[in-house]
């Protein structure tokens, strides 16, 4: 076993990043669906916009974390 193989470490980081992004997107989608079902039409537009911004922010954080681990 070569646990210090940088390629394996990069693969692990990429997999964890993909899992974290998937979880964040799933949680945001679930929350958005719940909020939209009980929101007025004006609130729906704001919620969609905020959710997209939040998803982008989460992606940026994940990218920053993966860069720090390299």
Written overview of the protein:
The structure is a single chain. With 70 residues, the protein is mostly helical. Helix content is 87%, strand content 0%. The chain contains 2 helices and no strands. The longest helix is centred in the first third of the chain and has 32 residues, at 6-37. The radius of gyration is 17 Å and the shape is elongated. It starts with 5 loop residues before the first helix and ends with a helix. The mean pLDDT is 78.
Structural class estimated from helices and strands: mainly alpha
- Count the strands? 0
Question: Which spans have pLDDT < 50 for at least 5 consecutive residues?
Answer: none
Major pleated sheet = none
Cα(first) to Cα(last) distance is: 21 Å
- Percent range of helical residues: over 70%
Secondary-structure element order, N to C: HH
Oligomer designation? single chain
Cα gyration radius (Å):
17 Å
Detail the topology: elements first, then pairings:
Elements: H1 6-37, H2 41-69
Features:
single chain; mainly alpha; 0% strand; 2 helices
Short description:
With 70 residues, the protein is mainly alpha-helical.
